[in-house]
Amino acid sequence: MRILLTGRTGQVGSALELSLAPLGKVIAFDRQGLDLLSIGDTIAKARPDIIVNAAAYTAVDRAEREPDMALALNARAVEKLAREAKSLDALLVHFSTDYVFDGEKPTPYVETDAVSPLNVYGQSKLEGERAIASSGCRYFIFRTSWIYGPAGRNFLHAIIAAAKTQPRLRVVDDQRGAPTSSEAIAGAVAHVLSRADTAKTAGGLYHLSAGGATTWHGFASAILQSTGLKTPLVAVRSDEYPVAAKRPKNSLLDNSKFGTAFGLSLPDWRQGLAAVLAAIH
C-alpha cells in the first residue's frame, strides 16, 4: 500500500507518519516540500492508494485578517486533492473541525447537525468538506476538536510556557470541548485504514474526538496539576478575553457513529493528557 501524507511536520501529521508506517510505504511531505496549490504532478508521480491530508491553515485568529490564504489552503487546495484522488481512484483522508458549528446546541454535535461557522477558519474548513463530498472521490473526513500533542505549537505548550513566566494565567471558562491528542487521532486513523475492507468500501464523515468534556480553564487546570506548576489560574468569560475570531461555546462532538463503525473510541481527554505528558517527559 502506498500512502501519500501531507503536513508531516504538523501536530497530527507527525503522529500519522509514525502510526501509518506499518501499513505500507509512506511518502510524506511538509509545506516546504509540497505546494498544496500545485500538487497534481506530485500525486500523479507517487500514484498513492491513499492520500492523507494533515496539512491545513490553522491560525484561527489570523485567518480573520487572511481569509484568502485560509480559503486557499483549507478549501481550494483540498478541492485539488479530491480531484486527484478521484482520478487515481485513491482514498482521501481529511481532517476537519468542530468550528463548523456555531456552538449553540446544548448537547454534543452529531454529523448530521446543521453547520454554521462563526469564523473564517471554520468556514474555510467547511468549504473543504463540501469540495470533497462533491468530488466523487472515496473519502473519510474526520472532524476533531481542541487538538494538542507533544509536537508543534498548541494550548498545552502555551500553558506550560506561560505558567513558568507569568504571575497568573487568565483562561476562558465558558467554552466546552474535549481536548484531543494528535497521537490518539493518528492511532484511530491507522486502525481504520488497517481494516481489510476500508479501501474498498464506505467512507464518509465521522466525528473523532476524545471522551469526556471540560473547558479551556479546566484543561489548563489539569495541565498545571499534572506538571506540578503552581501558577494561579483565573477563570474568565469569553467576552473578557477578546480575540479576533469568535469561538463556539459548545465544541463537543458525538463520536458514536465512529465507535459503531470501527469498534473503537478515543479515551477520555484526561487519559490522553497523561499519555502526552509522559511522552514529553
Task: Note the topology.
Layout: E1 2-6, H1 11-20, E2 25-28, H2 40-46, E3 50-53, H3 67-88, E4 91-97, H4 120-133, E5 138-144, E6 147-148, H5 155-165, E7 169-172, E8 176-177, E9 180-181, H6 182-194, E10 204-207, E11 214-215, H7 216-227, E12 233-236, H8 256-262, H9 269-280
Parallel strand pairs: 1-2, 1-3, 3-4, 4-5, 5-10, 6-9, 7-12
Antiparallel strand pairs: 8-11
Helix pairs in contact: 1-6, 3-4, 5-7, 7-9
Question: How would you describe this protein?
Answer:
The protein is of the alpha/beta class and 281 residues long. The chain has a domain at 2-149 and 181-210 and 252-268: NAD(P)-binding Rossmann-like Domain (Rossmann fold, 3-Layer(aba) Sandwich), CATH 3.40.50. The chain contains nine helices and twelve strands. It has helices at 11-20, 40-46, 67-88, 120-133, 155-165, 182-194, 216-227, 256-262, 269-280, and strands spanning 2-6, 25-28, 50-53, 91-97, 138-144, 147-148, 169-172, 176-177, 180-181, 204-207, 214-215, 233-236. Helix 1 (11-20) links the parallel strand 1 and strand 2. Helix 1 runs parallel beside helix 6 and helix 3 (67-88) packs parallel to helix 4 (120-133). The longest helix is centred in the N-terminal third of the chain and has 22 residues, at 67-88. The radius of gyration is 18 Å and the shape is globular. The model has no long low-confidence stretch (mean pLDDT 92).
Text of the CATH class of one domain: Alpha Beta
Percent of residues in helices comes to 25-40%
| Strand line-up in the sheet with most strands | 2-1-3-4-5-10
Number of strands: 12
Q: Structural class, judged by helices and strands?
A: alpha/beta
Average pLDDT, all residues: 92
CATH architecture of one domain: 3-Layer(aba) Sandwich
The CATH homologous superfamily of one domain is termed NAD(P)-binding Rossmann-like Domain
Number of helices: 9
CATH topology of one domain: Rossmann fold
Radius of gyration: 18 Å
Could you tell me the strand content as a percent range?
A: 15-25%
Topology order in helix (H) and strand (E) letters = EHEHEHEHEEHEEEHEEHEHH
Q: Can you summarize the main beta sheet?
A: 6 strands, parallel
